[in-house]
Structure formats: C-alpha cells, structure tokens
Amino acid sequence: MVQLMTPQPARHPSPTVKARRLAYLIFERPDLDKAERFLTDFGLQVAQRSLQEVYLRAADTSPFCYQVRRAERERFVGFGLEVASHEDLLALAKLPGAGAVEAAPYPGGGERVVLIDPSGFSIEAIHGQASVAPLPHRPQLPLNYDEQHRRINGTQRPPVTAPEVLRLGHVVLEAADFQATCGWYTQHFGFIPSDVQVLPDGAPAVVFMRLDLGDTPADHHTLAMAQGFMPAYSHSAYELVDADAVGMGQRVMRERGWHHAWGIGRHILGSQIFDYWSDPWGSKHEHYCDGDVFTADAPMGVHPVSREGMAQWGQAMPASFTRPALDAATLAGLVRSLRRSPDVTLKKMLTLAKLFG
Description:
Layout: E1 21-29, H1 32-42, E2 45-49, E3 53-57, E4 66-70, E5 75-82, H2 86-93, E6 102-103, E7 111-116, E8 122-127, E9 144-145, E10 148-149, E11 167-175, H3 178-189, E12 192-198, E13 204-210, E14 218-219, E15 223-227, E16 232-239, H4 243-255, E17 259-266, E18 273-278, E19 284-289, E20 293-294, E21 301-304, E22 313-314, H5 328-340, H6 346-356
Parallel strand pairs: 1-4, 5-8, 11-15, 12-21, 16-19
Antiparallel strand pairs: 1-5, 2-3, 3-4, 6-7, 7-8, 9-10, 11-16, 12-13, 13-15, 14-20, 17-18, 17-22, 18-19
C-alpha cells in the first residue's frame, strides 16, 4: 500500500462543465505533405486540405480529429474538448483569460471558446459540431479459443494495409506545474482521476484521467499527465478494431520506413494493447485496442511509478521513450522550472531520471 505524502489530483465537487469527448488535436508543422504522409500511413484519412492546413479524420462520425497548420517551426498547440451545450461555453467564457464564444472555423462548424491551461496549451471547448457519415472498416476478426470456436472451416487473413483508425482516444502531456494543471482540468472540465502513479516519497508522477459520463462507461483515460520539467506533448492514441490491426499497423509502418518508438505490448493501467510510432518531428502516436472503461463511481487507484509498471508484457519501455532532447532549449527550461515551479525540484528530476533513464 502506497502512503500518500503529498496532495493528489482529485475530483472537483462542482466543476464548471463536464467535457463529453476529446474532439481533436492541433499541431503546427513546416511540411504539410510529410505530415499527411505519416498520418495516412498511420490510418487517418484526409477530410479537408488547403495550402495552409490539413484536417484528418477517423472512421467515426466526427468531421475531423487532427488538424495540422503550416508554420515555420513544429509545435503541438493543444486540443479540443466537446461540451454539452451553449450554456457550457458561456460558463467557460467567464474564466480568466478565456476568449468569447465564437464560430468554430473548422469542418463541422459549431461554436468554440479558446482557453489556455496553466501549462500554456491551447484548449478549445467546442459545441454543436455537425456529424458526418462514418467510414467503413473491417469487423473484428473472430477468434478461436480452447472450447469456443467461432471460426470453423475458415482462416485468418486480415488485409495488408494501413490500419483503419476508429477514433481519437486520448492525449498525454508533460507538465512542470503538475498540480495546478491537473487541478485546472478537474475543476473546469470535470475530469476524474482513474489512477495515479507516485514516486517513493509519495509525490505524484503520472495521473490518468477519464471523462465524467455518469453511468455511461468512459475510457480509463482521455487525458493523462506526467510530471516533467517543462510543458510538452508526450503522445496521442488512436483506437483500432483489434489486436491484428495493431500488428498489421506495425508491419505497414515498418515497411513504409517510419520510426518505431515502442511496442507491441499491453499496458497495466488502461490495459490497452499498444504500439507507438514517431512522426517526422519525433511526436509519438499510439495504435491501441482493448482498453479499459469505467463508470463515474469507480475509485481512484494509487501505484508506485516505475518503468516495469508501464506494461504487462511485450518489449520493456525503452529509455528513449521518455528521455528529453539534451539541447539548449530543454536545459533552459529545466533551469527556469527549478526556479519558479513548486512541483519541480532537483531531487524529483533526478529520481525520475533514475527510474526511467
């Protein structure tokens, strides 16, 4: 049993609103063609494109789940969260630093409010997007077990093609101001902590947060956050139909020359069968299937953080998966956070480096 020594992320008793869905991610890239090539090989499909931006979609009814804007430098901008009503947008527009309710300039339309979280990420609350027709995708493969044979006089021959992404599942961030950033999402969007991983002294290192959908099961995490020394995008995850799709995705991505980051394996917290790929700018993207779902009444779990705690089976998490680039910008970010962030200490950073280095 891990003893809690520091305040943990916790449910807020009366959040401003309760987000309903992770709607989309926003990136800036200097090369739209290269970004599109990676993402379509990964399994997304182009929904709309211009000289300045490209929108990509999954097989579900969302008009898009991924926006790439043309820019001189690569950057993760932020993400969109769907809310339930126009009144929710009005409530969020009253928060300090929030923009006004405005028309969303995206495929599917709707209205949005743009906010900035405590780590500096742009968060767009959106409501009223028009749905689109779902894209066809292959059904789950029938599996044979010891005394349960669903496939008789038949074979398994999944198509050798880019996997069909069913939907955007979750996004994972790193934050220097860990407590403030986690608290902002629980207070203003109603996120529920599903599991927290803690350091030996009880300080939180990683939190996995789900949407509060009441009695409707929600993904184990739609947003996860790790203690870092500067704000950063860690990865985003995209659901596939089954484990064969994850495996075929690895084959196709390898054959097309993309950089493999980690996998295949099964996570412990969330239970997803996973496989991670890096885009041309080093941003990690996860194929997954078979994730856990929880209703709102499931309690929060607390666990020691370790590299071994990241997967039940499969390849051990490589040190490169969490190791930051050692350049002038990251060193300056570390010094800045050590000076100003209450959650960043040299002892904590050295402990994390020892656990994952």
